[in-house]
Amino acid sequence: MDTITENNIANQLLKSDFYFDLPEELIAQDPLEDRSSSRLLTLDKHSGAVEHHVFKEIIEYLKPGDCLVLNNTKVIPARLLGEREGTGAHVEVLLLKRREGDVWETLVKPGKKCKPGTRLVFGDGLLKAEVLETVEEGNRLIHFEYDGIFEEVLDKLGEMPLPPYITHKLQDKNRYQTVYAKYEGSAAAPTAGLHFTKELLKKIEEKGIEIAYVTLHVGLGTFRPVKEENLLNHHMHSEYYQVSEEAAEKINRTKQNGGRIICVGTTSCRTVESAADENGIIQAGCDNTEIFIYPGYKFKILDALITNFHLPESTLVMLVSALAGRERVLAAYEEAICEKYRFFSFGDAMFIH
Question: Does pLDDT of 310 surpass 80?
Fold first, then answer.
């Protein structure tokens, strides 16, 4: 455990302890042509040793008997641009979570103008909606009206909900989707998985590495910065996850046989850590998780992590610091900045082992 953790864990962990200065030009605006040609920085969580590779070389770090855990959630085109009925004023709605039927919890801009009873129109009336109520964090419950199948209407009108730091328009919707995306429900992609191609996954399986698929629908927490300086006061938003009997069996068997559990992305990590009991056994089933992993956390399942480079002072930097130590992570980030790695959703990858 590094010094910052020992000194602060009993007292307080500070958001500012996880700050680093990132030049704006290192924020990746577009995905690479070839997913697996991203760069890969490897970090030894014990020694802090760093090496530089190309992502497809990740296979050299995976051993027969390991288990790779992937999040097979699918991003829905959750960003809707429309107008307020009667006034024509522009409105943006981000679908966060389906509450029931055609009622969704959403993030609305500008929110102040969308009080309960406000009517909204999208796509020349192809989709209509009414604001029902304001809930936690100023989110709005909205009831949608349409003809046909909602998912088909959404596919026609909706845009991929890219993070605010990506200003370029996405040319191909599928590039903000993993090649193994299956179950719709996310408001953001599990971006560590974007580096994998079907060919690379096939080679990994042929080498004798198990692949276990879990599902966590990425929600609002992805868009919300940490506001509290004292991390112990930060509240994580709830996200739905599901672990199948097959995935639980693969993970538990790997652990039993002494293999490593290597999670692809912080969402897979949060899923397996949430689904594990106090004995480190994964339980199949579904639930909601608010797990917040920061230095001092003892991992029950995860041994290694494939992840992207994250925002300063974000819960994701805190999670990777829990695995490798804050000082080692920030030193690796500093080297990545010097070496001009690409950061965030469409950026390069890191393997912490």
Answer: yes
